[in-house]
Every structure is written in structure tokens, then in C-alpha cells.
Design brief:
With about 120 residues, the chain is of the alpha+beta class. Helices cover about 30% and strands about 20% of the residues. The chain has helices at about 30-40, 75-90, 105-115, and strands spanning about 50-55, 65-70, 90-95, 100, 120-125. Strands 3-4-2-1-5 form a five-stranded mixed sheet, with helices on one face. Mean pLDDT is about 80; it is low at about 30-45.
Amino acid sequence: MSGKNTVYSTDQGKHCSRCSKPQAQCQCKSRTRSASSGLQSSAKVSDGIVRLHRQSKGRAGKPVTLITGLDIKMEELKKLAKTIKTKCGVGGKIEGHDILLQGDKRAMIKIELESLGYTVKIAGG
């Protein structure tokens, strides 16, 4: 058996995809965390484009508008959500770092966000 590589082993758990060592012994995970820790804690990384999705799956057929890609702090996100909900006259909530609004109001939301200086795309169907 010497000279052959192990194809699959679960005795040490998951292995790092970069260095192939067990995650407990991984040398590259400490470098990855320290390099990106400041950015990940404040907001999600985005490409600068705000996307408006229409969803109805899992909501008894009722449409909702999901606003994703906002690269702002949570306090500003709450203020923006309140402004949009008031402007559209609908309810909604914040899920993670996205805004979820009742109804399909993508056209109205796009106009409002563009007036605030965001680059907006309508995504999905």
C-alpha cells in the first residue's frame, strides 16, 4: 500500500481545499480570515449594482420584491427600507442584508433608488 495516495478519508473530518490538510491543522485559514475580517463584518461584498428580484415561491403565490446588493451599514439600510416602504405604501422587513417588500413594486423602487444615486437592475421574472 505504500506509494499509493489516499482517495477519500473521513478519519480527520473535512480538509482545506487549498492546502489539503485537515481544517484543524490548516495553515491558510488564518491568513484568509485576517485579510477579509474587517470587510465581512460591516457589509457584504457587492459589485455596486442593486438588484430587484420578484419572488412568490413559498408565499402562497403572493409576490414580494427583494432588494439585494446594497453595500451600506445596517443603520443606513434601516433608514432606506423605511423610506422605500413609505414611498411605495407597503410593508416589508430586512432579512440579513437584503430588503423584502410586499408586492411587486420593482418599477417604483427602481425610480426611487436611482434618484438616490444607486445603479439599479431589475432581475428575475
